Amino acid sequence: MIPASVAAQLREFRKRHHYSSHVVALVDGLQYQQHTGWQLTPEDGMAVSLFAGTKEIALAHAGPWLIDPKTARERVGDLGKLEQGRPGVIWLITSESLERQAAKLRPHLNTRLPTGQSALLRFWDPRVLHALNAAYQDKASRSLFRTAEAWQYLNEGQRFTINDNATH
Fold this sequence. Notes:
Layout: H1 4-17, E1 22-28, H2 29-36, E2 47-49, E3 64-67, H3 73-85, E4 89-94, H4 98-105, E5 110-112, E6 118-120, H5 126-135, E7 150-155, E8 158-163, E9 166-167
Antiparallel strand pairs: 1-3, 1-4, 2-3, 4-7, 5-6, 7-8, 8-9
């Protein structure tokens, strides 16, 4: 079930901006599999791996996924329970299709370390996202957060929202 705070925020966003926005879930594939016993698989308009089309494709089952709660209704209950039990779900408010939202997020999968090496940036983990929101203060580093209108997640039992580059 989509959390009430996410649904309320979506209603408010639609009122203010007069265009069609919806909620998608950014899900940790490994957390989902461990919680439900099922592996996520790509399904048109329902579930897409952020690793699709990348060099990490072999890890797609365990990596980040976008799931559309409207078309994947049987998974929505699992996502609500997963969010409560494990750090594995972030809710995004977006006006993009599932594929377009995935395309906006893919460039943020890797980050450059001070040593010049590339590293996977686990922004689909609410604990990491929370730390990134605190650490990323300048406009350039906050480009990840501008890929969706709002991000909602649980961190240590408390719900947070990243919206307009500020936490509320």
